[in-house]
Design a protein that fits this description.
12 helices
């Protein structure tokens, strides 16, 4: 087995351990009985079925559509391969995420991610099962793997998941760094480049009136730069007091996971 395939579970497990040590990992504020069910099922189904299934299907379809194009991009320089992944995977995911907050039926697929009244590594993979199955960036990534970017995708995906997991964790690694005066210019660059707990928690905030919450923005996954570029960024270096979905009635675990099959 490629060691890179074990790295993401190791990173995830590391942040789980940090949350156990420094936060209430098993008893988050506002937690309901359904939360654990949704998180276990969505995380397991994504990692074991949906993501590998979509990538395999995309590679197979690419082979059928372009049988002579296998590894056609393998000779590209590294910077070009990384650039393709940043645009066709991360930027496309930014637009998928942004569109999911604008189109009602797509939000029904994404709402599970925001239904939790807390932020934690527990919600990193928390989404309706169909949300990931339809995610265009996963299908593009499979095509890029077919075209020869497989080895680069492994390392890129590892770094992307490190940033995403760290941004969702309620072990706020960025908070003490904001208080170090000489680091301020560095953090100014960091928070405009990648997602951080401060910028991403604003996206998960519950009350738009608090001056921090920005659930109609801060959509970036790996790169927060997309929010800066496309005008959806809000940077306050503060954290919302409440997380969740504002002005909407709660929905059950079945609806969160399997809408529209379960309504």
């Amino acid at each position: 087995m490629n060691p890179a395939l074990l790295a993401v579970p190791a990173i995830f497990g590391g942040f789980v351990l940090l949350e156990i040590l420094f936060t209430r990992f098993f008893a988050k504020p506002g937690q309901t009985r359904a939360d654990g069910t949704v998180e276990v099922i969505s995380t397991t189904s994504l990692l074991l079925l949906v993501q590998p299934g979509v990538l395999a299907a995309s590679i197979a379809l690419s082979a059928l559509a372009f049988p002579h194009a296998r590894d056609a991009l393998i000779a590209l320089p590294l910077w070009a391969k990384v650039g393709l992944l940043l645009v066709l995977d991360d930027m496309v995911q930014y637009w998928w995420h942004r569109t999911s907050h604008m189109v009602p039926w797509l939000y029904n697929l994404h709402r599970a991610h925001h239904s939790a009244e807390y932020l934690s590594v527990r919600v990193v993979y928390r989404n309706n099962i169909f949300y990931y199955a339809l995610m265009p960036s996963l299908w593009f990534s499979g095509a890029l793997i077919y075209l020869g970017l497989g080895s680069v995708y492994l390392v890129y995906g590892l770094f992307k998941m490190l940033v995403i997991i760290a941004a969702h964790s309620d072990v706020r690694w960025d908070a003490p760094l904001y208080r170090v005066r000489w680091l301020s210019p560095v953090m100014w660059v960091v928070e405009r480049t990648i997602s951080t707990p401060a910028t991403h928690s604003a996206h998960h905030g519950k009350h738009a009136s608090d001056g921090i919450t920005h659930y109609k923005g801060n959509f970036g996954n790996l790169l927060f730069f997309w929010d800066v570029l496309f005008g959806t960024a809000r940077i306050t270096r503060r954290f919302p007091a409440a997380m969740g979905v504002e002005n909407m009635a709660p929905i059950g675990a079945g609806t969160q996971l399997l809408w529209p099959i379960i309504r």
